[in-house]
Amino acid sequence: MMFSSSAPTSDPDFLHKSILPTDHFQASLPHLPIPKLEETCTRYLKAQRPLLTDEEYSKTEKIVDQFKNNEGRTLNEELVATDKKNKHTNYVSEAWFDMYLKDRRAICLNQNPFMAFNDDPRSEYNDQLIRSTNFLVSSLRFMKTLQANVLDPEVFHLNPAKSDNNTFRRVVRLIPKPLAFYGAALLYKAYPLDMSQYHRLFASTRIPRPDKDELLSSPNSRHIVVLRKGHFYVFDVLDVNGKILPVEQIMSHLKYILTDNVKPPEFPLAVLTSQDRDTWTKLRQDIVESGNAETLNKVDAGLFVLCLDDEELNDSGSLCRSFLHGNGMNRWFDKSFSLLMTANGKAAVNFEHSWGDGVAVLRYFNDVFKDTTKNAHVHPDTKPAKVDSKAAVKRLEFQLSDTTKQGILDSLIDFNKTTSSLDMDFIKYEACTKKDIKKYKLSPDSFMQLSFQMAFYRQYQKTVATYESCSTAAFKHGRTETIRPATTMTQKACQMFDKSSGVLPSVSELQQCVRECSKIHSQLTKEAAMGQGFDRHLFGLKTLSTKMGGELPEIFRDPAYASINHNILSTSTLSSSAVMFGGFAPVVQDGYGIGYGIDDSYLGSIITSYPPHRKVGQFVQCIEESLTDLGNVMEGKPLK
Ligand code: BUJ
């Protein structure tokens, strides 16, 4: 991801004023294609091959063949026909929102990921009050830039030297909106990305509802919600004209909150957002009925939540835990995103996932990191304004019924039980880096993915369903497609690198195999990014079939379908100089959640698991050994 540059502005309320309107490309974004049914079936079978025995595979092959020529064809025709009538969106968008919003499990751990910011290089700016004021102000500047439609649109530049500049913006601006995407793509090999998720970044929240949660936006909102010690504080950060309050005033309000000498609440309400959605729905209703509708609305309508924590944390393990789940009292997991700040100024974002994906959050993340570090608004010598913060800041009080009080106590027990059942470890491997992998002429991502395959095989002598998230933001309302990194070739690599097997292949045979793995992985990545994976297509067909009623086609009842969707290895990566680390919990009890980064100076990964199902420490060791073996082999050294 590149930092976009655009016209700077002296207006303190804006990050910049882009030459190109934020929505310049939105109308001309390409429509997400529905892959050909035959291709989906072929890709699906290929992905199934390494996961099944010969016998299971031939059964699945027959089922898929039958589907392709019968129910599959009819369903697909219907899917295509419906899609033709809905050119303003894509065939999987609604079903994907529903997948998130109908999920009744808790969103803490099961859905919300986190991304942690690098420290400000100037240590004196990592003070909790200074940094939270700066982050708050930069976030508001980002929000105002976005709302005024002058946030530089997100563009994937294939050749940044040629297109990530203002000449490109001036030229493309002249192309009428219905054609703008094609102009950028054809003239500059620059691919504008969908920006439809961004309107839910701010003043947005998920509300628990029976059966299906709701996404609520409060566009006229002017206040922020701060959580500290489990208490909610609100104050206006924009004046009546929508201008950002003077930064020294914001600083004064935050200082007031940070020095409020209040005991943590006996019944910390925020823990309810970590409950399963049905329990939370009922308790929320009870809270509303107990006369708190307006107070609760203050929380829902806040521009975002700032969580000011009391603990000073330094080691990676404690930081990851704090950013992924915290102690249950000081997070509001329903908010579109929360900005988290430890007492020693370590910062992160934890985000609710139903409304949007990593690409949108990362853009906000990168821009505020850049603004706070390059263009800080308050400094170590800044004095908070002499204003009446006591009058401006309101601590919210809730009247809780006995049912809710009991619900909170029960939720705290559930929260502690669930979060303490999660294990976490990380690896920062410096002996082989992105630069080395490029020197071997391999795709760095495939190298990393192969190390996960080899590590799991080393640990359990098995190849399992693996999910790698891939953005499809190049398409209108595009979200993600799945890359399937476990292939017959990676399975072969796992076997060839298996030192316990007795006969070791030659270095050149091993190198050849790694190259093949890389080639296949790159092809799968390209396909997924172009909307040519099989997962979303089958998901769309299954959703349609469920909607139409009757028995589901056998392909969806096949245990192999359940099994490939039981993603034991769930992986996601992002690269940005603003990110220190990031992660998420496993998506199944017996899985690993793998957030990884590929950097010029290290290969890193943060991994979660639920013991005793999996042993994350041992897995990390296996990744390290796999990376060492891969590196050695690519350097021409034999396996030891
Ligand atoms: O695929 C999807 O539709 C969404 C996925 C779901 N899932 C997380 C289950 C895969 N969501 C995302 O991919 C968003 C994840 C955002 C967090 C990514 C973390 C990346 C960490 C990079 C840095 C690691 C460096 C470690 C150094 C020790």
**CATH H-level superfamily of the largest domain:** Choline/Carnitine o-acyltransferase, domain 2
Summarize the main sheet.
8 strands, mixed
Strand content: 5-15%
Largest sheet strand order: 11-7-6-8-9-10-1-16
Low-confidence stretches: none
Q: What class would the helix/strand composition place it in?
A: alpha+beta
Structure description:
One of its GO terms (cellular component) is mitochondrion. There is one protein chain. The chain has 640 residues and is an alpha+beta fold. It folds into 3 domains: 1-30 and 155-192, Monooxygenase (Up-down Bundle); 110-148 and 201-420, 2-Layer Sandwich (Chloramphenicol Acetyltransferase), CATH 3.30.559.70; 423-531 and 557-634, Chloramphenicol Acetyltransferase (2-Layer Sandwich). 43% of the residues lie in helices and 14% in strands. An 8-stranded mixed sheet has the order 11-7-6-8-9-10-1-16, sandwiched between helices. β9 and β10 (347-351) form a beta hairpin. It is globular and about 75 Å long. The mean pLDDT is 97. The protein binds (3R)-3-(hexadecanoylamino)-4-(trimethylammonio)butanoate. (3R)-3-(hexadecanoylamino)-4-(trimethylammonio)butanoate binds at residues 113, 115, 357-358, 426, 428, 469, 480, 570, 572-574, 579, 581-584, 587, 595-597, 604-606.
